[in-house]
């Protein structure tokens, strides 16, 4: 999820998980499975085509616990009541639970002009952003300002390192905030890069060598043109770092389906012509139309989002020699040789889409003129770096990006929000160190560990009770759960963010200046690219995290067999040590269960207890799984929103399968964990909510996490690109699949629509 405004850059996805979720290492084949990618829910234009709920009324509890009247409990109660529909007592939870839980949220939250969507997680992320702003705009904290949960007890030389780290972070922030200087600099630094591209790749007479040199030049800037090279764990040898080459995650527009929309294409051509025409007035306008035609071909050759998610379709190991033959024009051998560290030989790589690579060579590049290719390379650079410049020549593109997302064309987030995100992207581990000091505690870490451990125990119990898995597979599955590594809060290695000297060493090669925003941004990109490729020749560093500590998200990493929960998601209302546990188990516990369930979803099931991509399920178990998985595909495929043509646009049940399975399994494991916890430590009720039982409050807090709004245009693009279903569908579908929900609300039919665990 990305709760910070997205930069106006459509060609490059620097990580699978937007700064919400975001792996720091740029890899074209990251398989992290997270709780959400996008921050929106499509609820304004939905059609519910599947009647999956049945009437019922809230059950009562004759043995009401005492009421919690602490400040934290009163706050929690008021938030929940604020979000519930004003007439929640009149609504049937078995048929209208999303409205019951979120009706008040929608009435009381509007999207800002610069937002395409928002939900409860957005508010959490913006609360974290505000805290980070206070940190960045304040002086280095003195001794009295340090909490006990920080590197406050520092030796003099360590304090110096801590302050030096703080100063580097603050310089990055100040350079980003200095809009006067950014405007004064204007297009100059971008034009310098464009001039270098023109020299490398002339508009006429360019040969394959020029393509190779240009792709390499752009790759070193973090720009994917024609292909996207990267590194990451080898799925079949997860302790080894391997090179991978993929189609660019985004060709130019947000989704490949956008290239089939004539209105979008027409506007896109106009924007390219306007922007490029202002920069290169001597070029023929027809060249810019040919750039769009080239992108159309690239998009058509690219795999679908569902296929990108499918490990069985995207893992193609081969020798470098054989891979290079697929697209000789790109020169993979030379490209990789210039990216890997000196002395490292690459013999093997993974090509995620051989079909794309072959089409790129045989039917695309062979029919594209040098003039078109040059314009394409220039346009990719402009798209990728547009957010780092302030110039009227680039304004049409920024307006176009806003329009694609349904936002006010001239809207932009408050500058401080952009700059907090910029710092988190560039020196995120330094920022994490100060975030942890202000927003986390040893008590929170301990409770988070307890919940995650409880979820693992509950999932093992569910595996033991599963009838459709053969015994041999069940034993291996239980072993896999035991082997799952749980990371809570923040990293203590690679780097240890509480060790100032370790942080200073980590960022030692990154130069940041308080006045050079564009230069800083490029340096940050190049720092991550160099760090990514430097991993070659070394064992996979399993201590690394893919998200900074303040990120409001979580993920499961299949090759690492690890579940990771940054401190950012362990905040109110999802998690709080000072409120009744059924709220934290309902929200954070379900997040933990969701990530753990990914170990056995349509992707995770292909990885064994050590993170190896291998067939460890029997044929009978696979067949039984597939039958149940097909139920989820059909169920979610019946949800729809209004499409751009006014017709229903259905959720892609195959693309969202893994996430829908994880939602169902996570909720089930979390509820079982909560009931076990409650038997040991009875919880108090919340004031003003005695209409609901504690079990029912578990489901209300879970669903309240997904309350949100989305602009229609953003909702459409997420149907095309997001492996998560819309937020409203995640509530309705998951409740329909929860036996425990149906029992807790006394629904007439207790059987779930779809069920795995």
From TrEMBL:
Which cofactors does this gene product need?
A: Zn(2+)
GO BP terms:
protein processing
Kindly give the SUPFAM superfamilies that the UniProt entry links to this protein.
Answer: Metalloproteases ('zincins'), catalytic domain
Peptidase M13 C-terminal domain ranges (all copies): 553-752
Gene Ontology CC, one term:
plasma membrane
| Keywords for this protein | Hydrolase, Membrane, Metal-binding, Metalloprotease, Protease, Transmembrane, Transmembrane helix, Zinc
Signal peptide start and end residues: none
Ranges for domain Peptidase M13 N-terminal: 93-491
Which Gene3D superfamilies does the record match to this protein? Collagenase (Catalytic Domain), Neutral endopeptidase , domain2
Molecular function via GO: metal ion binding; metalloendopeptidase activity
Which positions, given as ranges, span the membrane? Answer: 35-54
* Pfam families the UniProt entry points to: Peptidase_M13, Peptidase_M13_N
The UniProt family comment states:
Belongs to the peptidase M13 family.
What name is this protein filed under?
Zincin
Which species is the source of this protein?
Answer: Trichodelitschia bisporula
